[in-house]
Design goal:
Keywords: Golgi apparatus, Membrane, Transmembrane, Transmembrane helix
Family: Belongs to the YIP1 family.
Largest sheet: 2 strands, antiparallel
Radius of gyration: 36 Å
Pfam family, one: Yip1
InterPro entries: Yip1/4-like (IPR045231), Yip1_dom (IPR006977)
Number of helices: 11
Shape: elongated
Oligomer: single chain
Strand content: under 5%
Distance between the termini: 122 Å
Order of helices and strands: HEEHHHHHHHHHH
Main location: Golgi
């Protein structure tokens, strides 16, 4: 074979080699894997940010109750404080006023609204309205009389103190035919609710002005009871 043919054959052999695929690896969580063609294409075009995976933030994985700031143990303790207002039982009842929450009183008000329905669905909106604006009235009156209380505290106390009326509701269904007994139970429920609320809201700062705040609280729970009984 002539030298010219030999050099041509060597040149063709050099061109017939294969091009190795670049071994590009992606680090995902410590494991190295080869990038696919689509991944390489996106990175070359400047769209690599689409492939980024953010680390999970522990704060984003909170339970739903914690996200909504609902403490069931705290709500249960406040319910016991309202239903058993006697100081001799040893409950720290001031926590209902000093550490107000929204979901507990709202649940109590909604539950009272549900048992007050009797086919008249407008009662629910009325009870919620009376709770909000009645608490506002008590709050304004307390501030005028010199009491250091916030609207959120009044809203929580008035809402929780509906629990005695919820307790007497099933009793009224049983003794409803006995008018005298039914009336006594209603009065007992209203006094129970009003005493529980007033003992939390009416502090020593009111001194001789206590009746001016206790009386509207008593009337407020009479109105709540009238919405339940339909009177």
């Amino acid at each position: 074979m002539s030298p010219r043919l030999t050099s041509l054959s060597s040149f063709l052999l050099d061109l017939s080699g294969s091009i190795a695929t670049p071994d590009v690896k992606l680090n995902l969580g410590g494991d190295f894997i080869k990038e696919t063609t689509a991944t390489t294409f996106l990175r070359q075009r400047g769209y690599g940010w689409l492939l980024e995976v953010e680390d999970d933030d522990p704060e984003d994985n909170k339970p739903l109750l914690e996200e909504l700031d609902i403490d069931l143990k705290d709500i249960y303790y406040k319910i016991r404080c309202v239903l058993m207002p006697m100081p001799s039982l040893g409950f720290n009842r001031q926590v209902v006023r000093d550490n107000p929450d929204f979901w507990g009183p709202l649940a109590v008000v909604l539950f009272f609204s549900m048992i007050s329905l009797y086919g008249q669905f407008r009662v629910v909106s009325w009870i919620i309205t009376i709770w909000i604006f009645g608490s506002l009235t008590i709050f304004l009156l307390a501030r005028v009389l010199g009491g250091e209380v916030a609207y959120g505290q009044v809203l929580g106390v008035i809402g929780y103190s509906l629990l005695p009326l919820i307790v007497i509701a099933p009793v009224l269904l049983v003794v409803g035919s006995f008018e005298v007994v039914s009336t006594l139970i209603k009065l007992f429920g209203v006094f129970w609710a009003a005493y529980s609320a007033a003992s939390l809201l009416v502090g020593e700062e009111f001194k001789t002005k206590k009746p001016l705040l206790i009386y509207p609280i008593f009337l407020l729970y009479i109105y709540f009871l009238s919405l339940y009984t339909g009177v």
